[in-house]
Amino acid sequence: MPKRSDIHKVLIIGSGPIVIGQACEFDYSGTQACKALRREGFEVVLVNSNPATIMTDPDTADRTYVEPITVEAVTKVIERERPDALLPNMGGQTALNCAVALGKAGVLERLGVEVIGCDIDSIEVGEDRELFAAAMRDIGLEVARSGIARTLDECERVADELGYPVVIRPAFTLGGAGGGMAHDRAELLRIAREGLSLSANGEVLVEQSVEGWKEIEMEVMRDEAGNGIVICSIENFDPMGVHTGDSITVAPCQTLTDGELQRLRDYSLAILERVGVACGGSNVQFAVNPTDGRVLVIEMNPRVSRSSALASKATGFPIAKMAALLSVGYTLDEIANDITGTTPACFEPSIDYCVVKIPRFAFEKFKGTSETLTTRMKAVGEVMSIGSTFEEALQKACRSLEQDHMGLGADGLCEYDDSSFADLVARPTPERIFYIAEALRRGWASERICALTSIDPWFISRIEDIVAAERSLRAGGVQGLTAQRLLAAKELGFSDVQIAQLTGQREDTVRALRKVFGVRPLVKTVDTCAGEFASRTNYHYLTYERGDASEFEEAARPRVVILSAGPNRIGQGIEFDYCCVHAAMALSAKGFETVMVNCNPETVSTDYDTSDRLYFEPLTFEDVMNVIDSEKPVGVIVTLGGQTPINLAGRLREAGVPIMGTQPDAIDLAEDRDRFSVLLDRLSIAYPPSSTAETLDEAREVARAVGYPLLVRPSYVLGGRGMAIVYGEEELATYMAEATQVSPDHPVYLDAFLEDAIELDVDALADGTECYVGSVLEHIEECGIHSGDSACCYPPFSLSDAIVGRVREITRRLALAVGVRGPLNIQYAVKDEQVLVIEMNPRASRTVPFSSKATGVPLASFASRIMAGETIASLRDSGELTEEGRDVGRFAVKEAVMPWSRFPGADSVLGPEMKSTGEVMGIDATFPVAYAKTRQAIDYKLPRAGRVFVSVCDRDKRAIAPVAMALVGLGYQLVATAGTAKTLRAAGLACEVTKRLSEGHPNIVDEIEGGDIAFIINTPQGNGARGDGSILRSEAVNRGITCVTALSATTALVQAIAAVRDTTLDVYALQDLP
């Protein structure tokens, strides 16, 4: 069938902010869809609230709305743009839920918008647990015994009928949010209460547990003509009971027979047809009994999913692009395979390698929460690796995590908890695979491990092979390292660091020995067809095999290697991938061949058509050098991918690698606090009193000289890892110990903490002779809250032009003095009209995407061109670089998205260590309205009426009265603890007093549980005080009640509430802004 001629304009809804369960894989899918449809001549309108994405760049779609994904905002976009069709399956659960809501509200019918790719009915069948179970029974497929519940009493009744343990699965949620496994009544009530509150239709599925069964995913695609293909099978290393997003997964399936796989293939395509997915990609999950092969259907996603990104990168098959083309009328046999150029899309991909995905976690950020993995997803990112064998792919994936593993142990970096060893083998945690390997080293039988974990014996046997090779390498020593034995070790994925550790040598010795023996990796290609047809794209991985059948191609133009950011994590996320993608596009347009190195399957940077050449490899020194040895680039870019490539810069330079842009010594000058302080003193630039310490005694000396409170932070880290504000000597000892563990080879910084100071972020460019200040961002929260967790605004809303001018001038002086060539970020504090430098990062920052969209200046693109030799003057003369600090006629606000609900037990107070997973952006003519949009975009409801609980620390008591007075003026009633109530009554405000938790019942938590509190203002002071309110804040998280822990944020929230009451929110396309 030819493409439809009755559709001209298509609306695509994005997935909103990065959250656990819905990450940057939807930037990849949305970007692919936009590009594919525009190439076919369709006009594309995009709605997405996440500024840190390529899809929200004004060049990706024809009309781009960075607006909340709510019925109200999207309706305004539809009314303005009048699209013919809505494509809802590229934006994850957020887009599907919005499409369903638009349909139920009658908006789509009223405005004549057709849903393509899948219809509203099929979405509801796929997402509504009861409808889906009935549909499966219709086609003779079995689902787990279950019951639908809409109340806690119904949950109990169903659980009693099924017997414990049971799984709770809310409808229309993502990443298992609100779900979990309940082993008894208490767990059931706790999980079900949250699940019912999060479910879009107020129901949960209470399901029989099949813990221990194999979990298999099938990524499938169907067109309007009924043609169906299986793109990829994916097997979970962990059995049922662990969310697939938290499990190690392997593609293709390793332990099923051909007959079992064929059966699941047939089931998957039948499910798509029954659910009503007319065309596009879907993901189907099965549980397979390892004893008798019995199959249960777990669920299906009638959309592009997290696993779709993995399957796409694992096979090279562009699932999102194909799904977009199918939605406008094409059939699979009419679409060409980009990679081969000769085969149609109806050819099922086949692969002749093994792919392993390992999730990345951030439990160190959320103290007090359990690390046990369940059906509720907790991973913040993931890595993917490709190898000729499972063993090679597994070890490459382990070192891709960047968590002090250079393989599956045997690297001198692993420590084990002997007191809980057996439990940590049996219990699913992020470290379990390392404990399994260590158990085999200690002589445990594989049968014992299988019995404890329910992991398939095939996987345990492969790990046993790795452990056996370790013993052989250790026994042979360096004398036994023949060419044949080195190659055999490399075929099993051993890194040079591991081999060095096992043979008592240094890493560089092993590397030199490999070169002498000619043991070098081969370049292989991901081509969708296992080498049956020639590949037209350069999507590569490195592997070790006998022979010399490398698929390397010589360069036609000068090559530049771009080191990207690796796995998403808190502190280093999609923002850095955004910068690397811009570099690839900008430098390719300027005549370079760009070579991307990354190991993150969720990203646009690992799309095969983003750069001229892509290597899916770990970002370690060894693996990066392997790419550089093959590609022989004219330069390597290390300042766009966050801290990961920065940490490699020095070693790369020592190895003779040409670094483009800012040099490693300049990077070290900014990172080394002593050197940087000397520079600031020489330039007469102010900074907070500070010093460094390597021991607790030295830290105590600094504390006596500087005074408390102190900001304690490690060096050479990202996201404020290990940072804390300490108010006394006892806390100092605790946090010094943590900081020295986080960065053991570098001193700890101790800065005077500036209370009540305004914090600024500045993004700029420098070329060695000139500096261009791209943006000055004012934080809404005061100093002490990590910049990644604080909301910020462009242009500054409360600072004078004189102060902003001083900030710009200091930025120029520092950029030139340090020797920056490329991007830089400086954080400032403004206190009592004095401007102080907090820190300087001579690299791209996480605010670059926001700054670029707020100002209209593509900072990452220009930064890469400067690193390649262009100057700020030439960019200005060409008319590309606009006037610095021009009036943009609008306010743009960035707000952080917090993952509190995923980590029960963790305190939800903000501090100097970053904890947010993503961000949203609001654009409007005034600051309060722009800020209100960010609250709506995060699904934080702006409470219009009700009772507000207020409890603030002594420091904030003087400032709370005006805020409280504004709340009373807006019609709210005040509730407070005795101390705060005294302050409010002194200001003439009526206030109800409630008991503290320690004072008995009824207290504030009782009132929250009763649904009597609209939102909460709770500002703690000091880490002890913060602990006192943790129960209160935890209850607020569980109930979905807004809880503000910084007074400055409270002021902004009150302004936003007032503005929304008086204003009808408008929407803005980026292409219309000046």
Task: Write up what this structure looks like.
The strands form seven sheets. The protein has a seven-stranded antiparallel sheet with strand order 14-13-10-11-12-15-16, sandwiched between helices. Strands 31-30-27-28-29-32-33 form a seven-stranded antiparallel sheet, with helices on both faces. It has a six-stranded mixed sheet with strand order 17-18-21-20-19-22, sandwiched between helices. Helix 14 packs across helix 16, helix 25 (696-706) crosses helix 26 (729-742) and helix 31 packs across helix 37. The chain is built from 37 helices and 38 strands. The protein is globular and about 80 Å long. The relative contact order is 0.08. Helices cover 37% and strands 19% of the residues. The two termini are 42 Å apart. By secondary structure, it is an alpha/beta fold.
Q: Please report the total strand number as a whole number.
A: 38
Gap from first CA to last CA: 42 Å
What integer is the average pLDDT?
A: 89
What structural class do the secondary elements suggest?
alpha/beta
Strand order in the sheet with the most strands: 14-13-10-11-12-15-16
Rg value: 28 Å
Total helix count? 37
Largest sheet: 7 strands, antiparallel
Name the poorly predicted regions.
none
Helix fraction by DSSP (H/I, runs of at least 4): 25-40%
- Strand proportion, as a percent range, falls in 15-25%
What would you call the shape? globular
